[in-house]
Amino acid sequence: MKKVNQKLQLLLFLLTMIFSFFSCTKKSQDTIRIGILEGPSVISFIKMIEKPMKISGKKVEIIIKSEPQQIQALMIQKELDFAVLPTVMAANLYNKGVNFRMLACPIWGTMYILSNDPAIKSIQDLENKNIGIFGQGITPDILLQNLLKINNVKNLRIDYTFTTNSDLANALLQKKIRCAVISEPLVSVLLTKDTTIKNITKLNCEDYINNLDTDIFVQTAFTVNNTFSEKYPEMVKYICDEYSKSCNFVNSQPLEAANLAVKLKILPDLNTAMLSLPLCNIHYVSAFAIEQELKHYLHLFLNYDPKSIGGKIPAKDFIYQTY
Hints:
The longest helix is centred in the N-terminal third of the chain and has 29 residues, at 2-30. This protein is an alpha/beta fold. The model is unreliable at 1-27 (pLDDT under 50). It is globular and about 60 Å long. Helix 7 (165-173) packs parallel to helix 8 (186-193) and helix 8 crosses helix 12 (270-279). It has a seven-stranded mixed beta sheet, sandwiched between helices. A three-stranded antiparallel beta sheet has the order 9-6-10. It has helices spanning 2-30, 40-44, 46-50, 68-76, 87-95, 139-150, 165-173, 186-193, 226-231, 233-252, 254-263, 270-279, 291-304; strands at 31-37, 54-55, 58-65, 82-86, 100-107, 111-115, 130-132, 157-159, 179-183, 198-202, 220-225, 282-286. It has two domains: 30-109 and 215-318, D-Maltodextrin-Binding Protein, domain 2, CATH 3.40.190; 111-202, D-Maltodextrin-Binding Protein, domain 2 (3-Layer(aba) Sandwich). It is built from 13 helices and twelve strands. Strand 2 (54-55) and strand 3 form a beta hairpin.
């Protein structure tokens, strides 16, 4: 009797595994997965989150993660059809053979230098001070180093002990540190919670193309899996159009967008949301239209640490043109 029960249990287990396999396969075929990060990326997708989409019978699923490494892992595992992540990381993955190509830049710089020290009013005041930053050798660190060099700021001690944007924000709020590089939307949360915290400056590139005041802060890449784009080019175009509309909605109807962000629990209250939206710098621009800006931006990282982008500027094929 015991052997019979064991055989039945084994049979049930095998049937469950087979059913799960086919269920997952069917779901995979019927679902378009878009991986995005908490913060400005979520706000940029706000209309697509509010009203889940279906395209040609396929459900669009938006997967939200807190860290870029989580999005990267899903891309490597071929679990995503689209992904939003730092442009530097997208270039690195492409150079290492992960077949995601860049469709657009939706977010143009969301990192700011904040301080609760009244003596710090400009970037020049950072000399001989301490500043907290999350992540050594990644986007905020490299851009800060570049900004310090351009402005000839010396003897600034950088504290890398805080590993996430949230940890850093809490430390600033609790006055464990006096100055930090913080990414939106936590910038707005901090400015709303504590009036002693001031926005000193945006962490920008301070670099231009042919001496023109052209924004090269191509911080974020909206990318597509090459297999998906080859199989469904019309769906890629449709997704891009819908995403562009969502980004435009944030800018053209800020009050409605702010209320929606609160309703969806993306931001805590209306005041914070209204402060946050412009600081998110959401502007959907197709990658083919900013090819020079993209190269110029990536050169900053190539010059500082070639490994950060995979050792070279990605080939022209890195950019996917939908039209």
